[in-house]
Design a protein that fits this description.
3 helices; binds FE2/S2 (inorganic) cluster; two-stranded antiparallel sheet
């Protein structure tokens, strides 16, 4: 990803904003990145990538997501479809058990 590509597509948070937040705020755990414009608080797709960025930063590496923006966005779409189907199946199961 390039610096201005969005890592959190739900909250429109770019990799550059996340990296600057890590360098400035030094959050002790990856969940602290939610303080950066709400990153990771939408669908949840980006959370593993936020953890990756945090881990890279903690290890003294240059934090960078190693996905192309197109693949990243397409895989998020699949993730959201799968989550929707799981929720629908769960709701149907709960309705059927009553
Ligand atoms: S892409 Fe970050 S919460 Fe959905």
């Amino acid at each position: 990803m390039r610096p201005d590509d969005e890592v959190c597509l739900c909250k429109h948070v770019s990799q550059r904003k996340l990296v600057n937040f890590l360098l400035r705020e030094k959050p002790p755990c990856a969940s602290g990145l939610a303080e950066c414009l709400g990153a990771g608080t939408g669908c949840g797709w980006c959370v593993p990538f936020l953890k990756q960025l945090h881990e890279q930063w903690r290890n003294g590496e240059v934090p960078a997501v190693s996905a192309t923006p197109d693949n990243y966005g397409a895989n998020r779409g699949l993730y959201r479809e799968r989550r929707r189907a799981e929720k629908a199946a769960q709701a149907a199961a709960e309705t059927g058990s009553q």
